[in-house]
Amino acid sequence: MTEKLFGTDGMRGIANTYPLNVDFCLKLAQILGRHFCPHKKRVAIARDTRISGDMLLSALSAGFTSAGVDVLDLGIIPTPLCTTLTPRLNVDMSIMITASHNPYQDNGLKLINKDGDKFADADTTKVEELMHTAYEPQYNPQKIGKVEHLDCGFDDYFEAVTALADADSLHGMKIALDSANGSFSHILPPVFKFLGADIISLADSPDGYNINQDCGSQHTENLSRVVTENNCRLGIAVDGDGDRIIICDETGKRLNGDQIIAFLAKYMKEHNLLKGNSVVSTMYSNMGLGKYIRSLGLEHYASAVGERYVIEKMREVGSNLGGEESGHMVLSDYSRTGDALLAAIVVCLGIAESNKKVSEIFPVFKPFPTEAHNLRFESKETINKILDNPEVKNCIDAVQQRLQNHGSLIIRKSGTEPVIRLKIEDESAEVAATEAKIMLDCINKCA
Length: 447
What we know:
Helix content is 37%, strand content 20%. By secondary structure, it is of the alpha/beta class.
């Protein structure tokens, strides 16, 4: 069986260890250059602010150029800018070097096709198969690629930003911005200044080691404190590669991603910006979101977990709005992937227009009571054994049957660690708690 290297959003691991090491990246680039760069013989590579980004960039560049493929180095930019630029760059594919919201020790690779979309499952499966076959690189002294550097950043966002809002659209709005010491550090503050906001900028001085360290979308404690101490209208945090947004209100309360999707849906519907009369989130979103979306007269569609699947479902149903509870917000009229900056602008425009405090707007809908548990085990093999156990399967079927029409059960393996994720929702908190206990007892018994 081929080793699974790529998850729903690329590959991640500890930098300078397999598979995020120089040898692997060199071989990967040579294989990608031979099998996935048939036309332009040209790729683009971007990275976030991690110290290991230069090392992996160098290894990938060496692999591509040794395979006769030119490399366009986009520098340090957010993932959404990389995906948006890719179709314009006359390349066969792009790679984003990032581990998103993970600490600096980690890194990862997101493979992007020439159209700016993440590689489909069939493509990553082919890459994995090729990586595990005997491989002899074919070096041709007459075909050596070159590396070209392209400055990207603030100016490249202007087209999308000005399509959303005019200069000074947020005049007088006091906002705390947390750039996660990541790839938005040199973009987020000047964009909001251009829009006229009175900003307090946090975590905007990356040093290679402080990305996501006690800051960003996963660590909003300091952002909440700054918001309350400085009487800000709201706080906005992004993650290290800029595809995830988290918002806190003027009291410092962190808002759930499903609530942001709901707010965007209402705002876009009221301004005739919503296409397909529909909104997409994942099956992991709270059931209250779907109920609220339908109350607006819209269709709600649930995709598999993962931003890539959200985007696929959006295209299938003709929607231009989708997102995940984790904070990925996709506004496909302006960006090909989750884009924290563009989502933040739309949210701020809606808040400014409301003349209300953020705490008076949120929560937009009442969520169903939820029981969520992450169950860690020794290995993925242990998890497979548990989930294949007939007693566990029967328990899952029984719980799902009892929750039918008024609740839901989601149980799945993590794609990156030996964890079973269990989530049970119901209109009744008592029912959700009871069914969760039944499911937990069964899993622990069979472990």
